[in-house]
Write a sequence for this structure.
């Protein structure tokens, strides 16, 4: 773990300056980089805590090197202090259990994560973009470890059911990364991403707050992951803060490409809402540098959610088809 403070003269939300945490062996051979996620985009007015996972180098003698890459204008200064190494034994991280809901890095807006913690597992949804700019999503279960972290795989599904199409199970799966989640508080943390093909980065995240209103939901239905158990392979992540609704819908294009839509707005009543679905494109990939997304189309239609209990509902899709939904339970532990 370490503390960092980034001060920048850059005025644009473009990644220009970056600091790296690199791992070398005793012969001076570079083994990898762990700190690709720290840049002028993470500039702040105070010190923040960071962490990297060295478990991939267990049993080796390695050297950590902190270095910076900057351009010739708008200088960025990276301050590093209190670097420490902790062995992985139960509880010594002092890590927290995360709050359920939408998470993001405010310096890298346009992509985000949904955390649904049940028992000793987290269902993690990652909503972002391919390198080509197409919207995509990944999901996976991360399990609590003895050191207080959560570890698991992020999986890309493809070839499943479209928004308004008949049921079709996903045809392909691909593990894109291994992830370790560390939460220093219930609302702040780090996702350590190790890409399947090599490389990776640390993503600083915090719980998303929709404006300055109340965080507690005024809805009579539960926040979390919802699905139609007769049409597995696609689903919906739902969070209400006060009267503000955020609905993420993850499914597939007719081509089989995974896609997600976002709906935001207000409750119509304590048990219902009707909101337009929007699709974005062109934003940041899982392991790529920051770039802001853009709305791809006008709203593609509206959905209406009508709860029938705290954990069941009917969703009316664009075109009028209605499907039953229920709150997904994937872990019955406490």
């Amino acid at each position: 773990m370490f503390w960092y403070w980034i001060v920048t003269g850059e005025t644009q939300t473009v990644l220009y300056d970056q600091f790296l945490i690199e791992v070398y062996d005793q012969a001076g051979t570079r083994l990898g980089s762990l700190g690709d996620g720290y840049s002028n985009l993470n500039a702040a007015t105070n010190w923040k805590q960071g962490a990297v996972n060295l478990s991939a180098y267990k049993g080796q003698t390695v050297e950590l090197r902190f270095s910076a890459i900057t351009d010739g204008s708008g200088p960025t200064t990276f301050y590093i202090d209190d670097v420490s190494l902790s062995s992985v034994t139960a509880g010594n991280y002092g890590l927290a259990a995360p709050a359920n809901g939408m998470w993001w890095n405010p310096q890298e807006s346009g992509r985000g994560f949904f955390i649904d913690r049940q028992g000793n597992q987290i269902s993690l949804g990652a909503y972002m973009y391919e390198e080509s700019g197409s919207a995509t999503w990944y999901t996976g279960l991360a399990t609590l470890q003895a050191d207080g972290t959560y570890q698991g795989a992020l999986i890309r599904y493809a070839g499943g059911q479209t928004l308004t199409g008949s049921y079709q199970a996903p045809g392909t799966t691909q593990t894109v990364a291994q992830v370790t989640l560390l939460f220093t508080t219930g609302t702040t943390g780090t996702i350590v991403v190790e890409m399947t093909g090599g490389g990776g980065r640390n993503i600083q995240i915090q719980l998303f707050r929709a404006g300055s209103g109340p965080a507690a939901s005024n809805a009579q239905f539960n926040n979390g992951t919802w699905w139609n158990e007769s049409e597995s392979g696609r689903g919906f992540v739902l969070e209400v803060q006060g009267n503000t609704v955020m609905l993420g819908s993850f499914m597939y294009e007719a081509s089989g490409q995974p896609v997600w839509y976002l709906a935001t707005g207000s409750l119509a009543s304590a048990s219902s809402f009707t909101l337009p679905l929007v699709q974005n494109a062109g934003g940041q990939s899982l392991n790529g540098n920051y770039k802001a997304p853009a709305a791809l189309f006008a709203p593609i239609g509206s959905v209406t959610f009508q709860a029938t209990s705290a954990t069941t509902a009917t969703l009316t899709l664009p075109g009028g088809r209605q499907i039953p939904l229920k709150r997904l339970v994937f872990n019955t532990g406490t």
User: Anything to note?
Assistant: The chain has no helices and 25 strands. The CA atoms of residues 161 and 168 lie 5 Å apart.
